[in-house]
Structures are given as structure tokens and as C-alpha cells.
Amino acid sequence: MTTAELIDCKGLPPGSVLEVETRNRHYQIECLGGSAVRISGHPEYCPTPVNGRMLDAGVIERGKYLQFLLDDRRPVTTSRVVKVRVQRPSGSASIH
Predict the structure, then answer these.
(1) Which of 74, 57, 76 is nearest to 66 (CA)?
(2) Residue 38 lies in a domain
């Protein structure tokens, strides 16, 4: 896994996994392609992986809020992002 300051989810290959640590929670996000994701980490909204999509043009940045939409109807805004780690699927180029 690689730590990054800024990630564009739409630019990641499907199967990439993000570990996003906010001030209050730890989320795991699997990129499905484009802004579509499978996300878990919130005890009420997504305790187990739930399909959703990233907001804010699919960008996750340290120091900003993570925003996503669950089941195309429930917007969620988290506390500020502290750390983002990325794991690309096997055979993909690494992040620089």
C-alpha cells in the first residue's frame, strides 16, 4: 500500500482498494470504476460494504472531508481525512 496526499478515484483501476482514515473513523473503499465504489467503515451507514459513489469529482484529499453517496440516495460527509492509503490490483502500475 502507498500513502498519498490526494487521490482521484476515477483515475484508479477497478479493484483498487483505499484505506481512508478520518478523524473519527476508518473506511475501506473498493473502486469499481469511474466514481462507483463499495465502501464500509461507518457503524450506522455502512458497517458492511455498501455500493455507492464518490462525490467531489471522486477526489479524496488529506485535510478535506470525504463525501460519498450511498445507494444513490443518502449523502454522507465525514470528518476530515487524516490519511489515505492505496493498494492497486496486482499487475497495476504503482502511484508516484
Answers:
(1) 76
(2) yes
pTM: 0.86
The answer to whether position 92 is within a domain reads no
pLDDT tens for 8-28 read 988 999 999 999 999 999 999
The domain tally of the chain equals: 1
Written as nine digits, the cell of 33 is 470504476
- The per-residue DSSP string of 11-55 comes to GSPTT-EEEEEESS-EEEEEEEETTEEEEE-BTTTBSS-EEEEE-
Residue 59: which residues within 8 A CB-CB, separation 6 or more?
6, 7, 8, 9
